């Protein structure tokens, strides 16, 4: 074989060896990548199923707890509570209502425990007392005394204490209905009473300024959004207007001061709109039952609409102070700070001795 024929052959062999090595190297690299990818995928699925497995376990524990709590509640209310009450009565000679009245002074704790005792009772006579009207309370008390065999000569205060609690409990329900009826009442510009109430609000807040016309941009000066305030009452109806007027009429100096604060160049807000928003807050607290401790401590009888509106006045005054203490960066953060204030009020209402009344600062 000549030299010239040998050179190409050697060159082809060298290229073949190089190509084989390159392909082997590529295969090893690809195999490593595939292996790594498989490991990553396997790890992902292990974590995925592990997380979901843990989640399923947590959910199972949660539902098992709820199931046991439901079973315990059923057994307690159906069997254990009844026999425990019977046993304590045999020992003390007093029924549960008597023990409540002797253990707690007049106020929220006594009324709430009385309400629960009546609700959980197996006796229809006691449960029906929760639906009593103000003029039928005495009749329900007489039936309860007979049902529970209360010896009034030994417990002369029983009827008085029970009457106060029933008036508070049933009065709260009546107040909820009255507030709801007022909320559902739509502001009607054709209604002279509605219009008169709206004009009264203007005169209370702006006594030295004449309103140019019923439809006017001047309404923005007291915090309404448009030229006609009626559009702002859609959510809370006449309840929103009634609360604004009540606050301005019963606390005129405070109302004007809060209005002045609302015009602050940096921390200002829409006075009327915020007032209507706080009406919604007061309404939700009333509807949820969160206001029971406050009213039970405040009123030794049936709470009235005025008591609700005084609580609203407390909210307006305290929110104004809260807003300026927090110094929010923008009015766009209103909902965030409103919710923070809402949570603060709810925490206060959880205290058994709570009493939220408007207390004026000395400079006012």
Describe the 3D structure.
By secondary structure, the chain is mainly α. Among the domains are: 96-183, no CATH class; 185-349, no CATH class. It contains 13 helices and no strands. The protein has helices at 3-92, 96-103, 108-120, 124-128, 137-148, 158-184, 192-205, 237-250, 252-262, 271-288, 292-298, 305-326, 334-349. The radius of gyration is 36 Å and the shape is globular. The model is unreliable at 3-7 (pLDDT under 50).
Provide keyphrases for this structure.
364 residues, mainly alpha, 0% strand, ELMO/CED-12 domain containing 2, ELMO_domain-containing, transmembrane, GTPase activator activity, transmembrane helix
- Percent range for β-strand residues: under 5%
Order of helices and strands: HHHHHHHHHHHHH
Number of helices in the DSSP assignment: 13
Specify the helix fraction band: over 70%
Structural class: mainly alpha
Short overview:
The chain is 71% helix and 0% strand.
Topology:
Blueprint: H1 3-92, H2 96-103, H3 108-120, H4 124-128, H5 137-148, H6 158-184, H7 192-205, H8 237-250, H9 252-262, H10 271-288, H11 292-298, H12 305-326, H13 334-349
Helix pairs in contact: 2-3, 3-6, 3-11, 5-6, 6-8, 7-8, 8-9, 8-10, 10-12
């Amino acid at each position: 074989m000549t030299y010239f024929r040998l050179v190409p052959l050697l060159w082809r062999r060298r290229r073949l060896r190089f190509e084989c090595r390159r392909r082997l190297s590529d295969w090893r690299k690809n195999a490593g990548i595939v292996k790594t990818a498989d490991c990553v995928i396997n790890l992902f699925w292990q974590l995925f199923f592990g997380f979901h497995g843990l989640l399923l376990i947590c959910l199972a524990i949660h539902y098992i707890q709820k199931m046991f709590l439901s079973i315990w509640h059923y057994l307690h209310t159906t069997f254990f509570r009844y026999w425990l009450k019977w046993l304590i009565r045999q020992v003390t000679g007093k029924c549960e209502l008597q023990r409540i009245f002797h253990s707690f002074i007049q106020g929220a704790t006594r009324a709430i425990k009385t309400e629960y005792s009546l609700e959980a009772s197996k006796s229809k006579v006691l449960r029906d007392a929760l639906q009593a009207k103000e003029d039928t309370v005495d009749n329900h008390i007489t039936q309860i005394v007979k049902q529970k065999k209360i010896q009034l000569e030994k417990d002369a205060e029983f009827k008085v204490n029970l009457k106060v609690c029933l008036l508070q409990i049933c009065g709260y329900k009546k107040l909820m209905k009255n507030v709801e009826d007022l909320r559902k009442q739509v502001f009607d510009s054709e209604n002279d009473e509605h219009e008169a109430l709206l004009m009264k609000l203007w005169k209370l807040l702006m006594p030295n300024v004449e309103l140019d016309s019923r439809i006017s941009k001047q309404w923005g000066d007291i915090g309404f959004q448009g030229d006609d305030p009626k559009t702002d009452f859609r959510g809370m109806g006449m309840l929103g207007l009634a609360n604004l007027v009540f606050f301005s009429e019963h606390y005129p100096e405070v109302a004007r001061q809060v209005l002045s604060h609302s015009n602050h160049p940096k921390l200002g807000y829409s006075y009327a709109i915020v007032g209507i928003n706080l009406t919604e807050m007061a309404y939700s607290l009333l509807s949820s039952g969160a206001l029971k401790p406050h009213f039970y401590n405040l009123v030794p009888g049936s709470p009235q609409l005025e008591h609700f509106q005084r609580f609203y006045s407390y909210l307006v005054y305290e929110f104004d102070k809260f807003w300026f203490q927090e110094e929010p960066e923008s009015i766009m953060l209103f909902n965030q700070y409103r919710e923070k204030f809402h949570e603060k009020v709810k925490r206060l209402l959880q205290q058994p001795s709570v009493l939220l009344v408007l207390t004026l600062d000395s400079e006012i």
